[in-house]
Each structure stands twice: as C-alpha cells, then as structure tokens.
Amino acid sequence: MAATIAPSVRPGKLLRRSLWGAQIVVALVFCAAGVVKCLAPMSQLSGMLPWAGQLPPVLVRMLGLIDLAGGLGIFLPSLTRIKPSLTVQAAFGCIALQLSAIAFHLSRGEVSVLPLNFVLLPLCIFVFWGRGKRAPILPAA
Fold first, then answer.
1. Membrane-spanning regions, if any (predicted)?
2. What distance in Å separates the CA atoms of residue 57 and residue 37, rounded to the nearest whole number?
3. In 3D, which of 65, 52, 132 has the Cα closest to residue 97?
4. Cα–Cα nearest to 111, from 103, 123, 122, 119
5. Residues 31-81: pLDDT tens digits?
6. In angstroms, rounded to a whole number, what is the distance separating the alpha carbons of residues 105 and 114?
7. Collapsing DSSP states into helix, strand and coil, what is residue 71?
8. Residue 46: helix, strand or coil by DSSP?
9. How far apart are CA 112 and CA 121, in angstroms?
C-alpha cells in the first residue's frame, strides 16, 4: 500500500536531506563491513575483528552477506523508487542487527567496539521512522 502525503504536510527539505544523508552513511558502513567480511581472508579478518577468528568462517561470511544486504536495502529502493517500502524493512533489519551486535559484544566484554554500534543504531532508527512515517518515498509511476 503506497503512502501519500498531502501537500500541507510535506516534509521539509532539512528532514529529507537528513534522511538521505543517514541512508548514505548507513549504506556505506554496512556495505563496507559486508565486503570485508565476505572477501578478506579469515587470517586477516581475525586480526581486524578478534571475534571473527572464534566463529565458524561460514557464519562470518553470512554476517557479511547480511551486512551487504542491509546496506543495499537501506539505500537502493529509495534511490530507484522501485519498491521503496523495502527501505523501511531494511532499516528495521539493520536495527535488529545493531541490537544483536550490541548484545553480542557486551556478552564478550568488547566494549571498545560499541561506539560504532551506538552511532549506527540511532541512524537506522531515524531512517526507519523517517521513511516509514514522516517522509516516505513514493514508488515510481
């Protein structure tokens, strides 16, 4: 079901630009993390991410694919206006991923890696709210 916005409640330019900025940042971070987790040799990845050496390699590669899917999903549907509601769903998935990552790192005492998660989480929530409620992008005609 496509959302329509009456002209009187059209979101402001600042909100729209902020949402695009958040989407770009989240997409770049998630895609970069996904590519690294998918393509880097496990020995090199273990040096960058200590937890990666303690998990089965297939799980690390799957997490990379999930990161990549989240990064592409939070940006491309809005950019192309092909099923832009997928952006909201991707943002929800990224929120769940960040909450899981925070719990995982806290359980392992890896507090030093949490700042990135605490930056990405509100950005993902902002995109989820903004593209879902306040400034959705309509599908191409």
1. 20-42, 62-79, 86-106, 112-129
2. 10
3. 65
4. 103
5. 999 999 999 999 999 999 989 999 999 999 999 999 999 999 999 999 999
6. 7
7. helix
8. helix
9. 16
Residue of 96, 120, 121, 101 lying closest to 111 (CA atoms): 101
CB 65 within 8 Å of CB 98: no
C-alpha distance from residue 59 to each of 56, 92, 108 (Å): 5, 21, 17
Tokens linked to 8: 């009187």
**Distance from first CA to last CA of the chain, Å, rounded?**
14
Cα(124)–Cα(29) distance, integer angstroms: 12
Closest CA to 105 of 120, 91, 92, 90: 120
Q: Output the pTM of the full model.
A: 0.91
Neighbouring C-beta atoms of residue 75, cutoff 10 Å: 22
Dist. CA 45–CA 50, nearest whole Å: 8
Task: Residue count of the chain, please give it.
Answer: 141
Residue 32 has which token pair?
């970069």
- Distance (Å, whole) CA 25 – CA 50: 24
